[in-house]
Amino acid sequence: MDNKPTVTPYNAQESKKAQIERMFDKIAPRYDLLNRVLSMGIDVWWRRRALGYLRTLQPGTILDVATGTADVAIMAAKMLNPLRVTGIDIANQMLDIGREKIRREGLDAVISLETGDSEALRFPDASFDAVTVAFGVRNFEHLEKGLSEMLRVLRPGGKAVILEFSRPRLFPFKQLYNSYFKYVLPSIGRLTSRDVRAYTYLFESVQVFPEGDHFLTILSKTGYQNPRCERLTLGICSIYIAEKAS
């Protein structure tokens, strides 16, 4: 496997985890709006498609890692009708916005959000039927450690569904996508969120993320069974699905 360099939001002396927390707290007020605008709304379909892989499992308990403003947690509660959805994130400003969205949806009895570290989950072994992550594993400081923790809290036979950006391969879409991601998106993000680095980091982090077959290999190495991938929208995004052995 290739060893790509670690990319951090601010290149500061603090840990990547601390920088990620600071970055998301800064952009939290406009995060949802920017997601809709910059993806032209297709991110909603991506999340729905990913959660569709849990329909046959009919999970009663779901852990949403790096839940942010709780988009996936809310959609999971509506689509899958679980008994409980727990969302964790290290960015408290994002969680505050998520809690308000949950209150507006009337889902307080189903969804709870809490501050939590993906690499040190507080939950006992085999606590959840399913674990989801949308656009979060790319920000893990120690990728395999976070994936191992997710596997630990999955019950035997449970399923992990991971949604993450990937890199298109088809010419000329690849070149158009890279130009948009590298130049246009950071400019829009800078004007609206007032964070110069946040959306530049987004492009850089996607470039070094071990996507596709590389990520499937990491899932297998970590202990997941039957890992597979569906590429979406000409490869802009990928869904990774894997199980815990029964």
Could you describe the 3D structure shown?
There is one protein chain. It is built from 8 helices and 7 strands, in the order ααβαβαββαβαααββ. Strand 2 (84-89), helix 4 and strand 3 (111-115) form a beta-alpha-beta unit. The chain has a single domain (16-243), classed as 3-Layer(aba) Sandwich (Rossmann fold). The mean pLDDT is 91. It starts with 15 loop residues before the first helix and ends with a strand. It has 246 residues and is an alpha/beta fold.
Major sheet: size, sense and barrel closure? Answer: 7 strands, mixed
CATH fourth-tier homologous superfamily: Vaccinia Virus protein VP39
Q: What is the class in the CATH system?
A: Alpha Beta
What is the string of SSEs from the N terminus onward?
Answer: HHEHEHEEHEHHHEE
Count of DSSP E strands? Answer: 7
Low-pLDDT ranges: none
Average pLDDT: 91
First-residue to last-residue Cα separation = 29 Å
Q: In which order are the strands of the major sheet placed?
A: 3-2-1-4-5-7-6
Q: What is the strand content? A: 15-25%
Number of domains: 1
What structural class do the secondary elements suggest? alpha/beta
CATH topology: Rossmann fold
Q: What is the C-alpha radius of gyration, as a whole number of Å? A: 17 Å
Helix content: 40-55%
Write down the overall geometry: globular
